Amino acid sequence: MLVRLLTFTLLFVGASWAPAQAQYTVQNLPNPKVQGQKHFVSNPDGILEYYTVSQLDDISQGIDSLTKAEYAIVVVNDYVGDSDFEFALELFNSWGIGKKDANNGLLLFIAKDRHEYRFISGYGMEGIFPDAYLKRVGEKYLVPNFRNEDYDQGIIEASQFIEQILKSSDSIAELEQLMPEASSFWSFRNPILVNTVWMFLLFTGLYLYVHYISGRILKGTKNKPKLIAPIFWGMGCMLLLMFLTLFIFVFIFNNLEEIYQRKNLPYFAFILLALILAMKITNGRTKIIENFKDEEDLQRGLKTYVKYLVIPMLLTPLAWFDLWGILNRFRRNVGRFTL
């Protein structure tokens, strides 16, 4: 009993005297320049390996030597305050990152325990590295590696990309070439917009083609295929599908933010347009069946429908059910008619 009491007391006292994890302020956070002008990384909690810090210092030194821009990196466990932006901005101004006359500094601030990172750039840097591109750098290089607790690799990859851009003879052109998805959404240099527009043009042409073929087959009949209604039917299917995916990715996989991102817009456009096209194909098939009462005429009409629309049918998986139904009808009627 006495041994247990002494053990508990020692543990309690040890916990009381154990130093609390540092929460840095702008004033007490170690400035790497104290070690010399060739140092650009502050890593007081030892989150990064020694060789990583050395490699990052070399990257920043190379940027400074060639471009006169200053790229500083700060990695801590925690800091005093509620806003990573305010803390990083105050730190940026307090340390005076960048040449005073050019205001060409760039700071990458990371708070590991809060799962936060922040880029702060001077006015002279914003023309070379706009905020939209810095955000994309974080999403592409930092976030995936940080999720795997690989802070060294994430920061090295992001820094190497920044180095490549800043050392380029034409930084803006280099950025647009290497990271076109980060450009303005309404720019035709943005592949997200371009791919989405091409998707709409392709499926609009296919939709009108299906309407033309079904209309030609039903020429002379009263019950014509609908032009507008299938669009709303497809949109309704899309809403139902989105509701189901919301349920699946929120309650089962818990990664909804990975699905509903702007970069996935072309895929969503494809699904929506494929559903609309499928509704149009189904409407055409239904009208042919309704209009032709004679089985031989119906078979002939359906054969023409498949002959001209096999490619649109293959492009939209939902229309495979129509194709299967028509082919199954042909199979049942093998030998009955001369087609």
Structural features, described:
By secondary structure, the protein is of the alpha/beta class. It contains 13 helices and 4 strands. It is elongated, with a radius of gyration of 31 Å. InterPro entries: TPM_dom (IPR007621). Keywords: Membrane, Signal, Transmembrane, Transmembrane helix. Pfam families: TPM_phosphatase.
List keywords for this structure.
339 residues; Diaminopimelate Epimerase, Chain A, domain 1; 2 domains
Total domain modules: 2
Percent strand equals: 5-15%
Q: Low-confidence segments, ≥5 residues, pLDDT <50?
A: 1-20
Query: Roughly how many Å apart are the termini?
Result: 99 Å
Specify the CATH class of the largest domain: Alpha Beta
Strand order of the largest sheet: 1-2-3-4
**Shape descriptor:** elongated
Strands, total number = 4
Class derived from helix and strand content: alpha/beta
Helix and strand succession?
Answer: HEHEHEEHHHHHHHHHH
Care to give the gist of this entry?
The chain is of the alpha/beta class.
Topology at a glance:
Blueprint: H1 2-17, E1 41-42, H2 50-67, E2 70-76, H3 84-95, E3 105-111, E4 116-121, H4 123-126, H5 131-147, H6 151-167, H7 171-178, H8 191-217, H9 229-251, H10 256-259, H11 265-291, H12 295-315, H13 320-332
Parallel strand pairs: 1-2, 2-3
Antiparallel strand pairs: 3-4
